[in-house]
UniProtKB/TrEMBL annotation:
The gene is LOC112667896. It is found in: Membrane. One of its GO terms (cellular component) is plasma membrane. This is Olfactory receptor 51L1-like. Keywords: G-protein coupled receptor, Membrane, Olfaction, Receptor, Sensory transduction, Transducer, Transmembrane, Transmembrane helix. It comes from Canis lupus dingo (dingo). It comes from the Eukaryota. GO terms for molecular function: G protein-coupled receptor activity; olfactory receptor activity. Its main location: membrane. InterPro entries: GPCR_Rhodpsn, GPCR_Rhodpsn_7TM, Olfact_rcpt, OR51/52/56-like. CDD domains: 7tmA_OR51-like. It holds the Pfam family 7tm_4. GO terms for biological process: cellular response to lipid. It is a multi-pass membrane protein. The chain crosses the membrane at residues 30-53, 65-86, 106-124, 145-168, 201-225, 246-269, 275-295.
């Protein structure tokens, strides 16, 4: 008896179509203006933070070293999406090849995991500074902070390597557009006709283990910080200790709230307008790099003074 088998599609697509703002193509140039300004402010702001930490002696402390690592991560997050987003909005350059698409999603997800890990490391920095102030400078030295940054970077790149390599091997026989103006892992496996079970399961596990553990440890760190602060007798000292954490708490919210919102929209918003998905996706990749330098420049006195010093020197010259 002859057993029939399902025919396999002979066509495998090697290019993908990025998506701008469906139905608003006529306004892409206008829509691109606030997005371009957002990218520009994010790039200038994070580059300024890096310059100040490198050149200003008062900022050569562990807290600001971690802030510099966060700024590098934010620059990488911006540069991962900027070319394709502005390419779609300015030039309608929607077509992207398989290899560039895989590379883009790899760097985008790697820097996202890196951002989460750096925020956790910064929570530990605040914990050591408040819980063990006398040992702070000896525990978190410059070389140790640099080593931590290198380890977190390699960890973030390594955990996204396996699914990225699998994406290169998949057959893509389902024509269709990606959901955003940049490539995402979940978008690419949606268009694949190969067995994607490993990528789906691996992606879910990594998000739960990596970002989930980062969030858990951040919450535990702040539970210990709050307990330590409440044990301080002086109300002024309690307020001073908590003020050193405000910028970091805001940075955590700027990163995780848009990510959570995008996840909810992808999971439960099947009947919502595609514009909602695209808007949330744009916010999730642009908002943290844009707001982090703004938050730290406003809320951190040493950085504010360093910026004013640079501006005043520029006026004198």
């Amino acid at each position: 008896m002859r057993i029939s088998t399902l025919p396999r599609a002979n066509t495998s697509f090697s290019t993908f179509l990025l998506t701008g703002f469906p139905g608003l193509e006529w306004a892409h140039h206008w829509i691109s203006l606030p997005i371009f300004v957002g990218y520009l402010v994010a790039l200038i702001g994070n580059a300024t933070i890096l310059h100040l930490v490198r050149t200003e002696p008062s900022l050569q402390q562990p807290m600001y070293y971690f802030l510099a690592i966060l700024a590098v991560t934010d620059l990488g997050l911006c540069m991962s999406t900027l070319p394709s987003v502005l390419g779609v909005l300015w030039f309608d350059a929607r077509r992207v090849g398989l290899v560039p698409c895989v590379l883009q999603q790899h760097f985008l997800h790697s820097f996202s995991f890196m951002e989460s890990a750096v925020l956790f490391a910064m929570a530990l920095d605040r914990l050591v500074a408040i819980r063990f102030p006398l040992h702070y400078a000896s525990v978190l030295t410059g070389p140790r902070v640099a080593l931590a940054g290198a380890v977190l970077g390699m960890r973030s790149a390594a955990i996204t390597a396996a699914p990225s390599l699998h994406l290169l091997k998949f057959d893509y026989c389902r024509p269709g557009s990606l959901s955003h103006a940049y490539c995402l892992h979940q978008d690419m496996i949606r268009l694949a006709c190969s067995d994607t079970r490993f990528n789906r399961l691996y992606g879910l596990c990594i998000i739960m283990l990596a970002m989930g553990s980062d969030v858990l440890f951040i919450l535990l760190s702040y539970a210990v910080i709050l307990r330590t602060v409440l044990a301080i007798a002086s109300a002024g000292e309690r307020l001073k200790a908590l003020n050193t954490c405000v910028s970091h708490i805001l940075a955590v919210l700027c990163f995780y709230v848009p990510v959570l919102g995008l996840s909810i929209v992808h999971r439960f918003g099947h009947h919502t307008s595609p514009l909602v998905h695209i808007l949330m996706g744009t916010v999730s990749v642009l908002f943290p790099p844009l707001m982090n330098p703004v938050i730290y420049s406003i809320k951190t006195q040493q950085i504010r003074r360093a910026i004013l010093k640079v501006v005043s020197l520029g006026k004198i010259q």
